[in-house]
Design goal:
179 residues, 32% helix, globular
């Protein structure tokens, strides 16, 4: 992933993540990025994005979500609300592997444990994927993202930007990069 191409960022908001998406958007726009926000209310909304159905050509996708046991936590819907063949429950590595058709994107997942091996492998097949492999304090995840994109906006190479962002403390060190 050539970070000089990171100009357009799509933030996916999955579940209740407080003001994280707004703080990210405001900071990233201040750094000069074009930022769009999409609220994910059901598994098929996320699957649509994973398949590449984007409203604009995002260079980077940030998942503002919660994670547990290497899965993306999805909102629970009523049984009568799910569409035919829509996955129920959290989005796993096998779901991601099945639906992901994104290529040459920088994908940053702020959810806890979303950097566990299987999910990271699924996301990083044709993309650069950054995520925490453990339970990260929420403020640290936000700080990591802002620090990473601040460095990229200055023209710092992705690997160096990543190293700077993760060097802050024991929480930001939980973020790993996968290719």
């Amino acid at each position: 992933m050539d970070n000089t191409k990171v100009k357009n960022i799509l933030i996916l908001v999955i579940g209740s993540t407080g003001n994280e998406p707004e703080a990210l958007r405001q900071s990233l726009e201040y750094f000069g990025y074009f930022v769009a926000v999409k609220y994910i209310g059901r598994p098929n909304d996320l699957i649509s994005v994973l398949k590449g159905d984007l409203t604009f050509d995002a260079d980077c996708i940030i998942l503002s979500c919660h994670g547990e046991n290497g899965e993306i936590i999805m909102p629970t819907l009523g049984d009568d609300v799910y569409e035919t063949d829509e996955p129920r429950g959290n989005i796993s590595a096998s779901d991601t592997d099945k639906y992901l058709n994104l290529k040459n994107k920088l994908i940053l997942n702020l959810g806890c444990t979303t950097g566990e091996k299987a999910l990271a492998k699924a996301f990083s097949k044709q993309n650069t994927y950054i995520a925490s492999d453990d339970y990260t304090e929420g403020n640290a995840a936000l700080y990591f993202a802002i620090s990473l994109f601040y460095e990229i906006s200055k023209g710092t190479e992705l690997d160096k930007s990543y190293k700077i962002a993760k060097a802050t403390d024991s929480e930001t060190k939980l973020f790993k990069i996968f290719r």
